[in-house]
Structures are given as C-alpha cells and as structure tokens.
Amino acid sequence: MMINNTIVDNDTLLPDRGYFYGYGVFETLRVINGTIIFLEEHLSRLNKGLMYLGIQKAINEKEVKAAIRALSCDNGVIKINVSEENTVFTTRPLSYGQMHYEEGYRLTLSRVKRNPTSHTVSIKSMNYLDNIIELEKAKKHGFSDALFLNIHNEICETAVANVFIIEGNKIITPEASSGLLRGIMRQWVMNTYPVMEEKLTLSRLLSSEGVFVTNSVMGIMKVIALDEVTLNQHKMVQEIASKYGEVIDGMGRNL
C-alpha cells in the first residue's frame, strides 16, 4: 500500500472527512503488462470528482505510474482513493477469469432505489455503502451482482457496472439522468458503437434480445439471468467483448 507517497505496511491514514464520512473519490484501474488501461479517462473523472467536492488536489499520470512501479503491479488492479488529507494507492489481483466470461452473470434486483438527484450518483464517491451491502447480499444468495432501479422504477446500473440491452440489433443503455455513474467502459462502448441512451424499464430488459454489463476491470460481461428469469442471448455481446479484447491486447503490447 502507498499512502501519501510512502510505502507502508499498515493502515496509517490522516483523519479527515474521507476517513470519517467517505468524503472523497476513487478510481479502479486495470493494469496489463505495466500499462494502465484508460488512464487518461480515469484521471479526468477522478479530478472532476475532486473539483466537484471542492478538494484542492489533482492526481496526474506521473504519480499513478510511479505507484504501480513502487507497488510492483505489472498485471492486476490498482485502486486510487483520494480525500482531503490522503492519497492512497492499493493493488490486488484481477478477480475475473475465463470461467466468469463463459458462464456469464446472474443479477438480482435490489430493493434499494437510486435517487437521481443525489450527489453520490454522478461522481465515483468513496461513500459506497449501498453498493457494497447490496453486492454482498447478492453474492450471499448466489448471484453475481445487484441491479438498481431509481425512485421512478427506471433501470440505473448494478452495484459495480453499467447496463446495456440489445433490441433489434440496437444497443441501448440507461440515460445518465436516471441516476448512474458514467463508466469509463460505458463510454468506450458508446464511442465504438451506435448506442441509444433511453429511460429503461425492467420489462424492456426482461424482453430484450441480450443484456451485458461493463466496468473497467471486467470489461464486457454477458448477463444470463435476472433473479429466476433466464435472459435472451445475442451474438452481438460476444462481438463487442471480442472487439474490446483486441483493444486491450493492443494497449498491453504498446508499452
């Protein structure tokens, strides 16, 4: 672990509102052969979040690259947490394997509703309590992740990923105004393919021709079921996943 530019063996943190209240932001990035995937995009979102909170800091590429060298993270995941008094870099192994992509994800519907006007939905806030509790509940009951609706019963996102559906060969994702984090992988899909942003209902997801979720660590993951309902599968999901695989393979080679 690296805290405030120092490698430490314990959890030495300076008490601040980040420590006490989750007043800060974080990013989770994938590292392949020493290359940080979408580093520029992650730092842009991180620094915009700091500005939103009025925290007078900005993290740059040099700091992140120095951290992965110091922490010997050539392959895996690096997480950056930033609050008023602390900048923390931690690493972990990649938790997604081939089995996950072959089997796909099973989602469960959360009873917790997103508030689209909340400050915490538009930034990657360290205040992640709803996400953590609902994700742990989902996994405890044999599911991969939890799906959130907002107070208007529109689909938002899962605890750790953005959601896409396929209807008639069209890729559709919930509008950001529904109450979701604009994910880095979500933006990659939208930059790479024609994607429509719409208000999505649960019934549309259940009747769609395919569903997939995205985040920067797992990439593209097909969804095979929501609770006890088996979802349709569409070849386009695998095509998108393969395209992304080619992109990150190229990034990993271009050191």
Automatic annotation (TrEMBL):
<dbReference type="GO" id="GO:0008652">
    <property type="term" value="P:amino acid biosynthetic process"/>
</dbReference>
<keyword id="KW-0456">Lyase</keyword>
<dbReference type="GO" id="GO:0005829">
    <property type="term" value="C:cytosol"/>
</dbReference>
<dbReference type="GO" id="GO:0046394">
    <property type="term" value="P:carboxylic acid biosynthetic process"/>
</dbReference>
<dbReference type="InterPro" id="IPR043131">
    <property type="entry name" value="BCAT-like_N"/>
</dbReference>
<dbReference type="InterPro" id="IPR018300">
    <property type="entry name" value="Aminotrans_IV_CS"/>
</dbReference>
<protein>
    <submittedName>
        <fullName>4-amino-4-deoxychorismate lyase</fullName>
    </submittedName>
</protein>
<dbReference type="GO" id="GO:0016829">
    <property type="term" value="F:lyase activity"/>
</dbReference>
<comment type="similarity">
    <text>Belongs to the class-IV pyridoxal-phosphate-dependent aminotransferase family.</text>
</comment>
<dbReference type="InterPro" id="IPR050571">
    <property type="entry name" value="Class-IV_PLP-Dep_Aminotrnsfr"/>
</dbReference>
<dbReference type="InterPro" id="IPR043132">
    <property type="entry name" value="BCAT-like_C"/>
</dbReference>
<dbReference type="InterPro" id="IPR036038">
    <property type="entry name" value="Aminotransferase-like"/>
</dbReference>
<keyword id="KW-0663">Pyridoxal phosphate</keyword>
<dbReference type="InterPro" id="IPR001544">
    <property type="entry name" value="Aminotrans_IV"/>
</dbReference>
<dbReference type="Pfam" id="PF01063">
    <property type="entry name" value="Aminotran_4"/>
</dbReference>
